[in-house]
Amino acid sequence: MEKSNKSKEIVGIIVAFLGAMLGCFGVRAFNVYVLMSLPLGVRMACMITFYWFVGLIPLIVMLVQKDKLKDYGFRREKMGLQIFVGVGLGLAMSLVLTLIPHLAGAGAYVDNGHRYMYLWQFIYEFVYCIVGVALTEEFVFRGILYEKIKRLGKGDLVPVICSSALFGLFHIFNGNLLQVVLTGIIGAIFCIFRLKIKSCSTLSLVLAHGVYDAMITVWLFVFLR
Asked: What's residue 1's pLDDT?
């Protein structure tokens, strides 16, 4: 890779990641100081749409550097299969990473604090996790950051490790060092899915990520009611 192109990718990586962190900080500040003062319907819409701000600067990087979504693993062919694979992977991850800890008496380690009781709450959780959180985070971490790191000519292992480490660090606002490490491992799992499963696209990862996150609340309802 030419030096100028490599520099462009490095700048893109730095700006996209710092932009995502800035967006995350802004979203958290909004949630703490503004969100709960809004009517329920407005609050629900804001939770989804405001999370997209995490991906705003990465999106600008994509446009400025003239990349396309297909460069980041989004594709149009066999959409039904992509969706099937994504949902299946999300459910499989939920069984292994959430159900088994509950059965083993370690449910406290997979508790997101949500105590939902009504169907509409669970439906919203799936919409929020898929359309808000997963869509944004997969675009940023398994999309733009993974691809740009890979373009530096380091094969697959380095992009998997680096994008997953950044994914873990992105969650530093949500908890402690252990959560950063565990989230980084989950990020690596998503990368491996896309590398090793032929029909797994970035769209598939959006669905897998969102379904896995939303199912945490479902299992809490099952085991804590």
From this structure: 62
